[in-house]
Amino acid sequence: MTDALTLAGNQYHSRLIVGTGKYRDFAETRRAVEASGAEIVTVAVRRVNITDPGKENLLDYLDPARFTILPNTAGCYTADDAIRTARLAREAGIGTLVKLEVIGDDKTLFPDVAATIEAARVLVREGFAVLPYINDDPIAAKKLEEIGCAAVMPLAAPIGSGLGIRNPYNIRIILEHSRVPVIVDAGVGTASDAAIAMELGCDAVLMNTAIAGAKDPILMAEAMRLGVEAGRKAFLAGRIQRKLYATASSPIEGMLGS
Amino acid sequence: MRVTINGDPRDVPEGTTVAGLIHHLQLNERRIAVELNRDIILREHYTARLLADGDEVEIVHFVGGG
User: Model-level pTM?
Assistant: First the structure.
């Protein structure tokens, strides 16, 4: 596979990872996932509704044999809760991948870095492939890599904010020092944001709201697929240097009257 | 006897196992995980594990999320 994303020992064509929250129904979720081309999809772990157990299950629409299901620990505010959620997710039969989120504050949804590191340490020891959601903080990224996380996932901007990459310089520093995949997670608003992340050299982009919240989620899913692909190709191609003055594209020689 | 399932008190017959409870609730075993008094119950133990009065059971599955 040329230019594959290698994550936790598996190879993927797509560098776009999508969430499955906030869609109208499971059918729309599936159509958006299909349009995005994503091979990895995130899911949340929640209580079964025992008063109405006949309800359809998300995984009836997203076949785990075809997609890599990445359970998250969204909504957890302590290391213990995140560890508990990750263990439950594994027992539900999906595998050892986990998107580790330990939230520090409900207004910003910024991560509690200390608690994230604490939880990552336990989960790595238990054999999980941990993908931690973190700030655009090179030090936190380094520590999580040293613990043995399978990737680091710095935010572009607050979850669901759609602000795009607020601090490309920090992302660049993380990229320069990281030996595990760097996945921009959260804060992307539109296709150009995804392209910028990929042009910086990120290995993948993870998003949910930017697609699910768009007026036409299916079309936006396709736009994101193209944005990620364009950004990746531009990164590999190597962009020209920025210059203050013009450089003519047409030859100077052979002008009329010269 | 009375057990609490996902925060909801329920009466179940004496001798109910985890497997029996899952069957009673019509849940598909494959896509859930079960905690009994904060301990995860492995799938292979569902049929042997008996519930006791006052037990707290959590049954989770996957939902849409980011």
Answer: 0.94
Encode pLDDT of A7-55 as tens digits: 999 999 999 999 999 999 999 999 999 999 999 999 999 999 888 876 7
Which of A21, A51, A57 comes nearest B66 by C-beta?
Answer: A21
Residues 6+ apart with CB under 8 A from A109: A103, A158, A159, A160, A186
Residue of B nearest to A186 (CA): B66
Taking CA–CA distances from B57, the nearest residue in chain A reads: A47
Q: Which of B5, B31, B38 has the CB atom closest to A59's CB atom?
A: B31
Q: ipTM score here?
A: 0.94
In angstroms, the Cα distances linking A206 to A75, A93, B1, B6, B44 are: 17, 23, 46, 31, 35
Q: Measure A250 CA to nearest chain B CA, in Å.
A: 48
CB contact under 8 A, A48 and B8: no
Question: What CA–CA distance (Å, rounded) separates A97 from A89?
Answer: 9
Distance of CA B66 to the CA centre of its chain: 26
Q: How far is CA B22 from CA A134, B29, B51, B60, in A?
A: 37, 7, 12, 12
